[in-house]
Amino acid sequence: MGLNSVTQTVLVTTVVTAVTVVGALVYKKWKQIKFPSKWEKVGTVKKLHLYPLKSGHRVELQRAEVTDVGLRQTKDDDSVVLVVYGAKDNEFRTARTYPKMVFIDVAIYDEDHLAIDAPTMRTLYVKIPKREENNTTSVKCWQNERIQGIDCGDEAASWFSRYIIERDTGLRLAYNDANQRRDITKTHQKILNYYKNLGNQSTGLYSDLTSVSLINQHSVNDLNHRIGNSVVAVENFRHNIIVDGPDLEPYDEDTWDWIKVGDDVVLRNVKDCTSI
């Protein structure tokens, strides 16, 4: 499920409530929203996951700050969102083609640097680039959408090239400082025509589309029951919010129009997750 971060506050592992159908709620501008007045308890947030690097390893959280472009670790931290891209074609690289990317860990080292690790590689310390000091680039992402980025330098480029493609050059790393909101109207019009609640306000920084995604643990349990001998973990689907509860049925989340976590966090269901 793809979600809009409608409110901006702290998200913790707590009770989840939902509204199934809210057909009468219509608004002209995103900030002029009439929220549901009645909620039904459906379960709890079981896990919170953050992905600082597109296709990288997850960061498991007990508490997260909700912003309009996704989750971040604390209220005082900037959102750290990175993407690997080709040095020649400026096209993004993901674990869909390079599965070993899922083993790359990104952590905040200090207020100015990130620490990046991967199996067999030395720790890479990357200075968080600033727009006025570093080259900016346009990364070609899903559906050929161009998304801005600030290049992280030659040392990072060499490290990612050696780990992912085992060459000294070929790949580079970009950082998104959230300076510019995405415009998906040119590249995603067919999707926008079908998903009426999806819009520019729904987007994350380098996510394919939405800023937050959610999945129900019972949906994954049902999948495992259907396929038999194999075991698929909920982490395989790379969602940010995993919900669970004794009364939940598989795929219940597909019917939730609005989701409320705790007292303050309200999310809008804008799209089912058809691409992972």
TrEMBL record:
Q: Which UniProt keywords apply?
A: Membrane, Transmembrane, Transmembrane helix
> Which residue ranges does UniProt annotate as crossing the membrane?
6-27
Q: InterPro entries this protein is in?
A: MoCF_Sase_C (IPR005302), MOCOS_middle (IPR005303), MOSC_domain (IPR052716), Pyrv_Knase-like_insert_dom_sf (IPR011037)
User: Where in this chain does the record put each MOSC domain?
Assistant: 171-276
Q: Does the keyword Transcription apply?
A: no
SUPFAM superfamilies attached here?
Answer: MOSC N-terminal domain-like, PK beta-barrel domain-like
Record-level Gene Ontology MF annotations: catalytic activity; molybdenum ion binding; pyridoxal phosphate binding
What is any Pfam family matched here?
Answer: MOSC_N
Record's keyword annotation contains Transmembrane: yes
Q: Give the domain of life.
A: Eukaryota
What is the name of this protein? MOSC domain-containing protein
**Organism, scientific name:** Tenebrio molitor
